[in-house]
Design goal:
Structural class: mainly alpha
Helix content: over 70%
Shape: rod-shaped
Number of domains: 2
Radius of gyration: 27 Å
Number of helices: 5
Distance between the termini: 37 Å
């Protein structure tokens, strides 16, 4: 069967309607569905479309694929955020060690190093940590 632009637009609109929001994923799915339908010999568009949907797992499968795609994009962000959190945590440890050394040697500014470590922990690491936990909980239930 040769598909017209009208058929392709219908397939694209139905995928959008059923939750495939990512344009690259939608284009790939439209391409796969159209290729499958063009390889078949039947001329009934509706029957071929339903058969193609069943072959690819139906709309629920497409929605699940969209969620997995979103999660993979989000996972890259989480990895970058965790690297930042690790780097700042390392700086906090260095500040704590500096504070301890300054305190043991009775040098000035020992409390400033300690205050810097506490400030980084409270103002940077904890908000980043809670942000990541919130985003993970949102993606878990979506």
């Amino acid at each position: 069967m040769i598909l017209s632009e009208k058929h392709i637009a219908f397939i694209e609109n139905s995928l959008t309607l059923y939750g495939v929001e990512d344009s690259a994923l939608r284009e790939d799915l439209v391409d796969h569905i159209c290729t499958y339908m063009e390889q078949e010999d039947s001329s009934d568009f509706n029957a071929l479309y339903q058969k193609a949907l069943q072959k690819f797992g139906g709309y629920a499968s497409f929605q699940k694929l969209q969620l997995e795609t979103n999660y993979q994009k989000f996972a890259k962000q989480i990895i970058a955020i965790n690297k930042v959190k690790f780097s700042i945590g390392f700086m906090v440890i260095l500040l704590l060690v500096m504070s301890l050394v300054f305190q043991m040697m009775a040098w000035p500014y020992a409390n400033a190093w300690l205050l810097g470590a506490i400030a980084l922990s409270v103002l940077v690491i904890l908000p980043i940590h809670f942000y990541v936990k919130y985003k993970l909980s949102v993606h878990k239930f979506s």
